[in-house]
Specification:
The protein contains 5 helices and 5 strands. By secondary structure, it is an alpha/beta fold. The chain is globular. It has a 5-stranded mixed β-sheet. A hairpin with a 7-residue loop joins strand 4 and strand 5. InterPro entries: DUF6924 (IPR053832).
């Protein structure tokens, strides 16, 4: 079964941690408040509970070419527990499996630029700090 398709010009956010519905609500609220326009297609499906990056890569590789997506974001335990709600960005295309974290406040910039192909995944991943977190191009 292919990964869900995001709505037009939004990024796919898969919930992988199902331990706290209140935390999931807080993540979505923080992401929605971070930008003026919708940037996310939220998927809360237990089939993605605790899914790892390799499983997503395998699932995407098995999908029909027209059903493949280029990147996605995971709302995992770290996302739920950290007050900045850093999503795990995952490259599924150019450098499959490459990741970086993006706090909610930076998500609209990353999502918008990736969804219109204005910038590549590597542009953001290369600008991540020592912890692997993108905090803007000036280090936020």
């Amino acid at each position: 079964m292919p990964l869900p398709q995001p709505d037009d010009l939004t990024s796919l956010i898969l919930r992988t941690d199902f331990g706290d519905d209140g935390a999931w609500d807080a993540v979505r609220t923080a992401l929605d408040a971070a930008g003026e326009y919708p940037h996310a297609t939220y998927v809360s499906d237990v089939r993605f509970a605790a899914v790892d990056v390799q499983a997503l890569l395998d699932e995407e590789a098995a999908a029909e070419e027209d059903d493949r997506i280029i990147d996605l974001f995971l709302a995992d335990a770290t996302t739920m527990d950290d007050p900045d709600h850093p999503l795990l960005a995952v490259d599924l295309s150019d450098e499959p499996g490459r990741t970086f974290r993006v706090p909610a406040q930076w998500f609209p910039d990353v999502s918008a630029n990736l969804s219109i192909a204005n910038m590549d995944f590597a542009d953001f991943a290369d600008a991540a700090d020592g912890s692997g977190t993108f905090r803007g191009f000036d280090g936020g």
